[in-house]
Amino acid sequence: MHKVTIIPRGRALGVTFFLPEGDAISASRQKLESQISTLYGGRLAEEIIYGVEHVSTGASNDIKVATNLARNMVTQWGFSDKLGPLLYAEEEGEVFLGRSVAKAKHMSDETARIIDQEVKALIERNYARARQILNDNMDILHSMKDALMKYETIDAPQIDDLMARREVRPPAGWEDPGASNNSDNNGTPRAPRPVDEPRTPNPGNTMSEQLGDK
Questions:
Q1: pLDDT tens digits for the chain (214 residues)?
Q2: CB-based contacts of 112, cutoff 8 Å, min separation 6
Q3: How many domains would you assign to the chain?
Q4: Is 114 domain-assigned?
Q5: Is 150 inside any structural domain?
Q6: CA angle at residue 108 from 107 to 114, to 5 degrees?
Q7: In 40-137, which ranges are continuous DSSP H helix?
Q8: What's the CATH number where 131 sits?
Q9: Quick check: helix, strand or coil at residue 117?
């Protein structure tokens, strides 16, 4: 995990960024299932903290990504014990009605039913796993909430502090407005900033252009 922010980006109210691990071009079944669990973390946090009746639509894209990932595991990557290492779907491309109908003709109703069952089982297993992880680490969840409310964006060093249950250090370049707006590093008062003077952007909130969208 590289960065977490509650600053809105596009249609997302907050974003979690991951950096690729080395030059890996493939992923294990264990890693893919962990990604599914991670994708449901936000929705589950809402459910645990606020209750099922107050879960929002904020995780809609996460649900879409997790479902597509689980379906690919079953239909393209051979991670289904019932269906085995067979290809049941071509690579996703431009979708239109004729193609969807043509693809459906190559698959029996029974096979389609088993695929749906396997996808649902993958989702349910990792949804339950994510719930258990959150329940076992509620103190970290609340500490992360506090850190994000204070800093808005946290990077890998702050995430490491959270996972180790240490006090979270300020992000690089972050300046406490309450402690340093009217004094320099030596405690010497400085002139107040003119109202119309633009503030310097916070380097800690700058997203690398190489990361892209989630």
A1: 677 877 776 666 667 766 666 666 788 999 999 999 999 999 999 999 999 999 998 889 999 999 999 999 999 999 999 999 999 976 555 444 444 444 555 788 999 999 999 999 999 999 999 999 999 999 999 998 999 889 888 888 888 999 999 998 888 877 766 555 544 444 444 444 444 444 444 444 433 333 344 4
A2: 104
A3: 1
A4: yes
A5: no
A6: 95
A7: 41-50, 60-75, 97-104, 109-136
A8: 1.20.58.760
A9: helix
Task: Locate 7 and state its tokens.
Answer: 């600053």
Owning domain of residue 59? 28-91+108-136
CA-based nearest residue to 70, from 99, 95, 110, 39: 39
3-state per-residue secondary structure call for 147-187? HHHHHCEEEHHHHHHHHCCCCCCCCCCCCCHHHHCCECCCC
- Classified as helix, coil or strand, 11 is coil
Distance (Å, rounded) from C-alpha 10 to C-alpha 125?
Answer: 31
Residue 43 is assigned to a structural domain of this protein: yes
Of 88, 82, 35, 28, the C-alpha closest to 62 is 35
Backbone torsions φ then ψ of 183, nearest 5 degrees: -150, 155
